[in-house]
Specification:
Blueprint lengths: L8 H14 L15 H9 L7 E6 L11 H7 L3 E7 L17 E3 L2 E5 L9 H4 L4 E5 L10 H15 L2 E5 L36 H10 L8 E5 L27 H10 L19 E4 L4 H7 L8 E8 L18 E8 L7 H15 L8 H8 L3 H7 L4 H19 L7
Parallel strand pairs: 1-2, 1-5, 2-4, 5-6, 6-7
Antiparallel strand pairs: 3-4, 8-10, 9-10
Length: 418
């Protein structure tokens, strides 16, 4: 147990100060009616209800209050009994590239347990010293972004070991209205996708946690508490929140990246570079053989999708901490840059499917896919079947539309915001 009144806090505050310095993009008060985070409300009004409770914080570099203070520091200042920290893919500081194993570590006397290493679930031994999990991680609203699978595993562990879970809600940077993609087929469940929601699901993590419990995707006995935000609406994108963006992982540097990622994130399963190895991942893509004028013409310049498309030539490079070996490393790529003009009209997955269709028609002998990766990310084998010519493009979209409509209906009872 760690309390600020003991002499052990000196090293802790030194490390937390360094942590704050690294997070030079601290969140700011940008408007008088900015979104108030679940973490703020928890610290101000609910933490006293957990007096004498031993806490395990599930967090990373995004777990910061709008004044720039880390949630860890705020909890210690409030004399909370912080017993352990659990951290997801990319690590406590969010500096490890996708897929890199995260090791356990220490923050002064506090143990940091990795949930993206030898184990991806909190173990009974790791949870013996805590009474409740506090989950506070900024997500991006894409099913195959692994933080929500970590949340599911935390809720399952909490149910198994008799712990409560407090989810401190945060905005969905991809908005709360647009839903895209098929529901995950259980056949393709993996750490990339662990429950049947669309690729772009248009919910906050708090709403999603309620759905996990309500739909029986986690044990029903889990004691779940969602701490709601205030001043957040479903129509909001990040600039509407009045909050400063902290990159959620090395290759999601901007809030706009989170909007396009549900679509262009799929390009990594094809013989296409999705902007990895550049400073603008997922907002550009290319290949040495890509006929960019033909593709842009087939997509009508992007206008009907709410974007502008611009040709460019770029060379993917090894970027330690982001992508060590990007597709077509050190080879010049004919590429396309995407500039989002109308966020509320930009359906990123539908745009990317149209892009894949244009590439398939223009380069029928060049486009290849990594089957297992694609099906896990997309959620079923419909896109694979389209590429292989056993399903029409129209039928692909029709099947997606059925799932999207079904999910919009199913999620309704779990929504916390208008």
């Amino acid at each position: 147990m760690l309390h600020p009144k003991t002499n052990r806090t000196g090293p802790v505050f030194l490390i937390l100060f360094l942590f704050a310095v690294i997070l030079s993009t601290s969140w700011l008060f940008a408007t008088k009616k900015r979104t108030k985070l679940g973490s703020e409300i928890f610290i101000q009004t609910l933490l006293t209800q957990l007096d004498q409770k031993k806490l395990g914080l599930v967090c990373n570099q995004t777990s910061v209050l709008p004044d720039g203070k880390s949630l860890i520091e705020a909890l210690i200042e409030k004399d909370a009994s912080l017993e352990a920290v659990f951290t997801p893919e990319h690590g406590f500081m969010g500096k490890l590239e996708a897929g890199a194993e995260v090791q356990d570590s220490l923050l002064a006397k506090i143990k940091i347990f990795s949930l993206y290493g030898k184990t991806k679930r909190p173990t009974q031994e790791q949870t013996q010293s805590i009474d409740a999990f506090i989950y506070d991680i900024q997500d991006v609203g894409t099913r195959y972004y692994t933080y929500i699978t970590t949340l599911k595993y935390v809720m399952e562990a909490a149910a198994a070991f008799g712990k409560a879970v407090y989810v401190l809600d945060r905005p969905n940077p991809a908005g709360g209205n647009i839903v895209e993609g098929p529901l995950l087929d259980p056949k393709y469940e993996s750490f990339r996708g662990a429950f049947p929601i669309p690729v772009r699901y248009g919910m906050t993590v708090g709403e999603l946690a309620l759905m996990m419990k309500g739909e029986g995707w986690v044990p029903p006995q889990v004691e779940l508490h969602v701490v709601r935000m205030t001043n957040w609406g479903r129509r909001f994108f990040w600039e509407d929140t009045g909050l400063r963006w902290i990159p959620t992982s090395p290759n999601i540097p901007f809030p706009e990246t989170a909007i396009i990622y549900p679509g262009t994130g799929l390009l990594g399963a094809f013989t296409i570079n999705p902007g990895l190895g550049t400073l603008n991942p997922f907002m550009q893509f290319g290949a040495p053989w890509l006929d960019t004028p033909a593709i842009i013409q087939k997509l009508g310049g992007g206008t009907s999708y709410g974007v502008e498309l611009e040709p460019l030539i770029y060379t993917p490079r090894s970027l330690p901490g982001k992508t060590l070996h990007p597709p077509y490393e050190n080879r010049p790529c004919q590429g396309i840059n995407v500039r989002i003009i109308q966020k509320d009209k930009f359906f990123s997955l539908h745009f990317t499917l149209a892009l894949i269709k244009a590439i398939r028609e223009t380069h029928p002998n060049k486009i290849r896919l990594h089957r297992d990766s694609l099906n896990q990310m997309f959620g079923n084998d419909l896109l694979e079947r389209y590429i292989e010519g056993t399903l029409s493009y129209d039928d692909l979209l029709k099947e997606m539309e059925k799932d999207e409509k079904a999910f919009l209906q199913m999620r309704q009872k779990y929504l916390l915001y208008d």
